[in-house]
Design goal:
Elements (H helix, E strand, L loop, with lengths): L1 H30 L10 H16 L11 H39 L16 H16 L2 H15 L8 H43 L5 H37 L7
Helix pairs in contact: 1-2, 1-3, 2-5, 3-4, 3-6, 3-7, 4-7, 6-7
Length: 256
């Protein structure tokens, strides 16, 4: 009976450890690119969360069962918040890719074409870039990098530890800044194309006022935007993937 009691206590400890890891992993997976998309069924998300939990739980120290309901709630809440912070940081890179697509679409008059193809309303270029970016990230081992990130996160965000609000705010502002900088960088070629197009169109209109330049220029900017997307998208996706890898290697560093 004494051995059974010890085994029961040990089992309860491991059950609690798995539950706390599940809370953090579940919060991350709900926002993880590709795995946490709205189009992914909830059963698939649950299976992915359980698989990640089994991997992460084996790589982090076993946490003891806290005493009292207050301590249990504190641990559960801290684990969920820590997972949400990691998930939001990664999710901002998908939003950066969507923003870059919106910038490119507005610059090349392609903002309405196939705008309702995704669950979230996106322009055609944003939809293409997002799907391509998610596929590239998964092919380059997003699941492995995510598991490593969740295991290493316990070194910076231990269990039962709340981060200060000022630190979260400073970190969050830095990540939003990084996301918009990345989006503008990715959409810069299309902005330059739009500026050159409008300057050329204005010069032609000034030289030949009787010519309906809008009818002549609209097909040109559309074709130019599609051609630029074909040429620049590999480099854009590489820059985006490098930024994502840099974040996942050191997610809690503050930008200068």
């Amino acid at each position: 009976m004494e051995n059974l009691a010890q085994l029961s206590d040990l089992t309860n400890v491991y059950y609690w450890h798995g539950f706390t890891v599940f809370l953090r992993v579940g919060a991350v997976v709900s926002l993880l690119p590709a795995f946490g998309e709205e189009s992914v069924p909830m059963r698939v998300k649950l299976a992915v969360t359980i698989a990640f939990t089994m991997i992460v739980a084996a790589g982090v120290p076993v946490s003891s069962i806290p005493n009292g309901l207050g301590a249990v709630l504190t641990t559960a809440l801290s684990e969920t918040i820590s997972g949400l912070l990691i998930g939001v940081g990664i999710r901002l890179f998908v939003l950066a890719l969507q923003t870059a697509g919106a910038i490119a679409a507005q610059s090349t008059s392609l903002s309405q074409l196939l705008g309702g193809a995704a669950i979230e309303p996106l322009a055609a270029i944003g939809y293409v870039l997002t799907i391509a970016g998610l596929a590239l990230a998964v092919m380059m081992g997003l699941h492995v990098k995510a598991a490593e990130l969740m295991i290493l996160s316990y070194d910076i965000l231990p269990s039962n530890l709340f981060i200060g609000g000022s630190d979260v705010a400073e970190w969050g502002v830095a990540q939003v800044k990084r996301a918009f900088e990345l989006a503008f960088t990715l959409g810069a070629p299309f902005i330059l194309l739009s500026v050159l197009y409008n300057l050329t169109l204005g010069a032609i209109n000034k030289a030949m006022p009787q010519l309906m330049v809008a009818f002549v220029g609209a097909p040109v900017i559309t074709a130019g935007g599609l051609f630029l997307l074909c040429v620049a998208s590999p480099l854009m996706l590489k820059v985006w993937l490098d930024a994502l890898d840099s974040f996942m290697a050191n997610p809690f560093v503050l930008l200068p």
